[in-house]
């Protein structure tokens, strides 16, 4: 008997995905709720929505699924840091970096989160309308840069953020072409602006590393750890390029997603006044002001956690990710040939009508009774799952709670502009335009 193969998306729908992947995934998910196959030019993939298939790829047989061609543009931009690396080299580096993200190592990060948020709020002065995408990006890049790499030069960090945005802007056309790009592509005139932005990003990161090289032993942070360590197997130091790749990866992964998660959460809080009020009621019953926040108190904010989870369900910043099968395999009865790409459509999974009632409605209460164990871990996974799940999940959740609490304790918030806002996927799940909110002093 010949192996079972998934239903195939039409070429017409596949072509539309180059411009906007959302309608493509929506139409085909409706036709093929568990899995479908899609081919366009040299890229061919299975797109999955079935949690058991997710579990198989991300956990049970994860060693057979590496980060392949789909990561072409990200690898091109970020080099070979934790997000894009594979195999033993990835594991070696994950083991080195992971302890810096344990709760007991996060005391300094906690202080940075509180302090940077208060500094931002003070900087608003009488300005009552703020652009969340811009303000949250600067805030979160400052937090991650300062917490792990001692980047406390505001101007340079701002410039870094600007150049990273330029990379997205000028590299946009390469984004959906799932190939590994050769370095010479930057010599093509239309990519000159991308080349310049990328060189500026590298130069800024390099300047931080070089400065630290001249001042070792002052800060006991992740940058110092990377610069000092010697690999157990070779007794050699980490190369300059590898340090840069790891730093750049953590800066990008550590602020781009959190910025969007915050912008979308503020957006829903502004639209749903009763949810905003319920969050504030919970908050004021537990803390007096932002300085009164502790880990224990933050953990008691269960409704706020539901609000963040509901926002991450509806607008998962990393809305798609992928793997490539090393050897042939099966997903249920479906045959997966070696080399096949498997796309995890997180946006589709999080709005799958079989798993979520009223999937397009913002209903934080649904998480009050949600069982996060067993197969449900693969129905709701904004931070990915399995050994390659997000390294920064606790960091991000703590950071988002501190920022949301600081705003909710001081302001009532509403949308400053009533024109429609909807997801517009780029590298991450952006809104179609920047989200602006109006702040109203509470007292
Ligand atoms: C709301 C915020 C965030 C979201 C939604 C998010 C989401 C994700 C997802 C879905 C993955 C898995 C990708 C895959 O399997 O291909 C991932 C991986 C990763 N994330 Fe996050 N992330 C967030 C915040 C952060 C932060 C704050 C950091 C670090 C400061 C971070 C660092 C990383 C790293 C290093 C990886 C790669 C892990 C590995 O492969 O070993 N993320 N993230």
TrEMBL record:
Binding site residues for heme = 390
Judging by the UniProt lineage, the source's domain of life is Bacteria
Q: What does the record give as cofactor?
A: heme
Entry GO MF terms: heme binding; iron ion binding; monooxygenase activity; oxidoreductase activity, acting on paired donors, with incorporation or reduction of molecular oxygen
Task: Give UniProt keywords alphabetically.
Answer: Heme, Iron, Metal-binding, Monooxygenase, Oxidoreductase
> Which Pfam family, just one, is annotated for this protein?
p450
* Family, per entry: Belongs to the cytochrome P450 family.
Q: What is this protein called?
A: Cytochrome P450
Its source organism is Hydrobacter penzbergensis
